[in-house]
Design a protein that fits this description.
This protein is α+β, with helices and mostly antiparallel strands. The protein has three helices and five strands. It has a three-stranded antiparallel sheet with strand order 3-4-5, covered by helices on one side.
Length: 147
């Protein structure tokens, strides 16, 4: 009887037991916060890449096919947006986590108020403690056509 009373009143090791109960929840919260930070970083990087690609279609020569025509000694250069160059430029501009992203450029044309639009989307697999959750990331940017 005396041994059982001594065993039940012994408090050595209670700190280790409490730590074991709390550490799993703390670890899950910490890893969840890190993964959510990666999702927000990927969304921000996608938005930057789409915005930069839309601007590239409008003002930069890296995303355009340039045609130079000389008539009667007058040289005229025209630029038209090229989808393949814009997609390559957008993929190079994306600096986020390694996820599969697709970009879709749409040329605005020559009408007043038109804009060159680029849309990007991808899926980020959020690794949570209880399972994986796919999160779809979308971004869209429109930049006015330069005249």
């Amino acid at each position: 009887m005396w041994r059982r009373a001594k065993f039940c009143s012994d408090e050595r090791g209670t700190t280790a037991v409490e730590f074991a109960m709390v550490v799993s929840v703390l670890l899950a919260l910490t890893l969840g916060a890190i993964n959510m930070s990666l999702v927000l970083f990927a969304q921000s990087a996608l938005h930057f890449a789409v915005d930069d690609a839309a601007r590239c279609m409008s003002v930069k020569t890296a995303c355009n096919n340039t045609t130079t025509v000389t008539v009667n000694g007058v040289t005229t250069t025209t630029s038209t947006p090229a989808n393949d160059k814009t997609i390559t430029y957008a993929k190079a501009s994306y600096q986020g986590p390694n996820i599969a992203i697709s970009f879709t450029p749409t040329a605005g044309g020559a009408t007043p108020g038109a804009c060159n639009k680029v849309t990007g989307s991808g899926t980020f697999d959020l690794n949570a403690v209880v399972g994986d959750f796919p999160i779809t990331l979308n971004a869209q940017a429109c930049y006015p056509v330069s005249s």
